[in-house]
Write a structure and sequence with these properties.
Low-confidence stretches: 236-269
Number of helices: 11
Strand order of the largest sheet: 1-2
Helix content: 55-70%
Radius of gyration: 18 Å
Structural class: mainly alpha
Shape: globular
């Protein structure tokens, strides 16, 4: 049953890649050749969030204390370190891979199965990396923008990496053993993650005339910064590294770098913050 769930989730990503490639579009940006498909998927995700995901996150936030939410985030973050270690090995980065392995070992034992993040205060860096980063490391530097169902903003490269990762039976199988347990596991993960970004909702509604392009440009800027590439959306002198702060002290799951603060006077920083909140986790 678990295999069926993984296949379905990977199939969602694969279907999005196929539909986007077949879409007949008239893009407003060369970075977004699948704009027609992406806008439809953006609208779908927005409605799903508005009517289902956000209300669940608000209720969860209201009834659970902050330390509990942090512990839940740390627990899922511990699994992400396992994938990060594997991808650092694929990127020929043995020191980073060893760092990730030590994080998992320390947090899984003394950190009570990852509920407490002991590794970060101990000096082990939280440097998450993904299969999309691995593709970029070996030459796939630029990729077209793509909005995935439920997962949100991505690129063809990152979407393919996500699909492959979802199709692999990872360490999560140690936690759940049937479909119902898997649904509960990922449901808690999704709601806990969404609850972290409730404060960004109002600023997104007033940030731009077109929330779609705002989110798109923010995501592309964020990924370029994470990969050490130039800002692909503009050629001005604004440095996104100066506008987006380091990750918050809590080590809940993130997209590699989640801004801890947002300055509305800098649209680039605000867009990057929203993109981090909405991107695949």
């Amino acid at each position: 049953m678990t295999g069926t769930r993984l296949t379905m989730r990977a199939g969602l990503v694969a279907a999005s890649l196929l539909l986007a490639g077949c879409a007949n579009t008239h893009p407003s940006s060369p970075l977004d050749p699948y704009e027609s498909f992406n806008r439809s998927m953006f609208s779908f995700n927005d409605k799903a969030d508005r009517w289902v995901i956000k209300p669940a996150a608000e209720g969860y936030h209201a009834i659970t204390p902050g330390p509990f939410r942090t512990a839940v985030g740390n627990f899922f973050d511990n699994f992400k370190d396992v994938y990060s270690a594997a991808n650092n090995l694929l990127q020929a980065e043995p020191e980073r891979a060893l760092n990730d392995i030590m994080r998992v070992a320390l947090n899984s034992t003394f950190g009570l199965f990852g509920l407490i993040d002991i590794a970060t205060p101990a000096g082990l860096k939280n440097n998450k990396t993904s299969l999309g980063d691995t593709f970029a490391h070996w030459g796939w530097k630029s990729s077209n923008y793509l909005v995935l169902p439920f997962f949100g903003p991505s690129t063809v490269r990152d979407g393919l990496g996500l699909g492959v990762s979802l199709g692999i039976n990872g360490p999560e199988k140690l936690v759940y053993h049937n479909t119902n347990e898997a649904i509960a596991f990922y449901g808690v993960y999704g709601v806990n993650t969404r609850a972290r970004y409730l404060d960004l909702d109002d600023s997104l509604a007033t940030a731009a005339i077109d929330p779609y392009t705002y989110m798109r440009d923010g995501y592309l800027q964020l990924r370029a910064r994470q990969l050490g590439q130039p800002n692909p959306t503009q050629n001005d002198d604004v440095n996104i590294d100066d506008l987006v702060s380091a990750p918050a002290a809590s080590s809940a799951p993130s997209v590699e770098a989640v801004p801890a603060a947002m300055d509305d006077s800098h649209p680039e920083a605000s867009a990057a913050a929203h993109a981090a909140a909405s991107a695949p986790q």
